[in-house]
Amino acid sequence: MKKFLLLVSIVIATVINAQEKITTSNFKTKIQKGVTVVEFNAPFNKSNNFKDWKQLEHCEYYTVCIHDSPELKKKHKIISFPTLIIFRNGFPEKKFRANIMLELDATVQEIQEAVDELYLDKF
């Protein structure tokens, strides 16, 4: 019964949070062009995900579950959850890590400023 309730809550959370999840197989393709913000998180920490992602402009936003893509966790040296990495044309440019309470200290304004700086560099 616990597994069923967990599954139902994951499905509901997925429907409510419509951000696109990416995996190792499509990661490179998704981050290859422009400015992309990727949230790395773990299943046990979904309550502390970055909730203001819809406010971000001039970028694409994706999530990666490190449980499903442990290779990406290792490659990008993810040590706390959530961690946001901002990529520009496939290259990591800025990283925001969670604190010891597994909460992201960065505000949406700080993240947007980093996105804008990278976005405006192309002009």
Describe how the helices and strands are arranged.
Blueprint: H1 2-16, E1 20-21, H2 24-31, E2 35-41, E3 60-65, H3 70-75, E4 83-88, E5 91-97, H4 108-120
Parallel strand pairs: 1-3, 2-3
Antiparallel strand pairs: 2-4, 4-5
Order of helices and strands: HEHEEHEEH
Helical region count?
4
Helix content, binned percent: 25-40%
Give the termini separation. Answer: 55 Å
Q: By CATH's scheme, which homologous superfamily applies?
A: Glutaredoxin
CATH topology: Glutaredoxin
What is the number of beta strands?
Answer: 5
Report the top-level CATH class: Alpha Beta
* Structural class by sheet pairing and helices: alpha/beta
Overall geometry comes to globular
| Biggest sheet architecture | 5 strands, mixed
Quote the average pLDDT: 88
Quaternary state reads: single chain
What's this entry about, in short?
This protein is an alpha/beta fold and 123 residues long. It has helices at 2-16, 24-31, 70-75, 108-120, and strands at 20-21, 35-41, 60-65, 83-88, 91-97.
